Amino acid sequence: MALLAIVTMLSPAALAAARDTPAGPVTFALAAVTVRQDNSADFSCRIDDASSATATVSIVVQKLDGTPVTTLDVADPQQTNTDLSLPLQVAVAPGEYQWLVYATDGAGLTQTQVGSNTLTVKQKGPVTKALGAVKVRQTLTCVFHYRVNDTASTTATVRLVVTKKGGATALRMRVAKPQPTNSRRAYRLRMKLPPGKYTWSVYATAADGAVQMSVGSNRLTVLPAPFPSASAIARAVAYLRGRNSDAALAVVDSAGALHGFSLDRRFTSASVVKAMLLVQYLRTHATLTASARSTLTLMITQSNNAAAFATYAAVGAHGLYSLAKLAGMRHFTAGGNVLYSRITAADQARFFFHMDSYIPAAKRSFARYLLSHIVASQSWGISQVARPAWNVFFKGGWFGAAADPFTLVNQVARLERPGVTWSLAVLSDHNPHSPYAFVTLEGVTSRLLGK
Questions:
Q1: Residue 48: C-alpha distances to residues 22, 85, 97, 98, 185 (Å)
Q2: Which residues have CB under 8 Å from 34's CB, separation 6+?
Q3: Residue 138 backbone dihedrals phi, psi, to 5 degrees
Q4: Domain tally, the chain
Q5: What is the pLDDT of residues 326-350, one digit of tens each?
Q6: Cα separation of 377 and 342, whole Å?
Q7: Which of 125-140 are b and which e, b meaning 16 or more Cβ less than 10 Å from the residue's Cβ?
Q8: Eight-state DSSP code of residue 129
Q9: What's the whole-model pTM score?
Q10: Helix (H/G/I), strand (E/B), else coil: 61
Q11: Final residue in a domain of this structure, among 223, 251, 282
């Protein structure tokens, strides 16, 4: 009743004035905004105001719980009663926010209603990761595993850059097409850089043009190319295939990879098995008597059969099978007469490549001495071609009739020079006549050595 009395006391003019007093602007945030950190975005808004043609505008950014974060001031007054697009720099941490429109019109009146919408701030740019150190031999293919993390883009253009010590660029690689982000990716490359230590780094440009905000890097080690080369091995294989005998070739290159042909074909071992007898005896006898040293020396350096039979009696067939299992031989068979054991080129080449690891360290130099001091009359074939450029540790074996004892001829060898070790086994049978098998051994070795 008291309020009614007050109202009725106002004059008609006063009531009209009260009805015509402006209420102030009404603001609207017209669209959600998504933007990368520290980048500009267009904030679409509108200020409706019946009494003023312009208004001063500010955009307030707050967390979802209402905590203010920053205010983005618009420099010039903006038109009212029309849709606006305000390009503003967003310098807040990545996350989810609200943006609100505040306005003061030309009459000094502030908004009576505040428009708001969502603001999503993404990371400033992609983050790249080089997923692991890479080690590869020159001329072989390696795989670079990497990842590009980006909350704002689903794809990115990727470059891999290899630098030398000191930062000079050695190689640039651009991945052919945009790659998916946020997943593990792989890039394969045939390595042609010189041997050495490098750093490989991942650079990325997102679909929206943003470049990486951090660069992932890791180590790259390029080792010398495998020896012999693939082309040299191919030439040796082609040569041996063309010879008039039953033959097999196995090569374990300096990277430990096995190559050749007829790798698992079985041949009679002849005296090649004496290298296995030597290694097994040294593995199973703690001390070497003078007599044992003499017997082993005769067996290896002169290929003495009586010494081999005595050694076989000491180690037994079970001893050779134990060594074969240790060496990963897949097709070895011990003979009643040890010289008639059955072997393959692959098993023997692998055995010689890893031989040092099967011999106790204290006895290793003795074994290496014997295998590198075969008498001159038996140092044909591989050793004759490879020396003096290579240190050659080898054993040969042969069978045949009295008129020609070289119809079956085998040689297995390990070749070393600083930084490079490899092995080969050449097994052959039904050679037509001497010195046919010797020529075959020399021809294979020459091609493997690139002569």
A1: 12, 15, 24, 21, 51
A2: 41, 119, 120, 122, 152
A3: -55, 140
A4: 3
A5: 999 999 999 999 999 999 999 999 9
A6: 25
A7: bbbbbbeeebebbbbb
A8: E
A9: 0.70
A10: strand
A11: 223
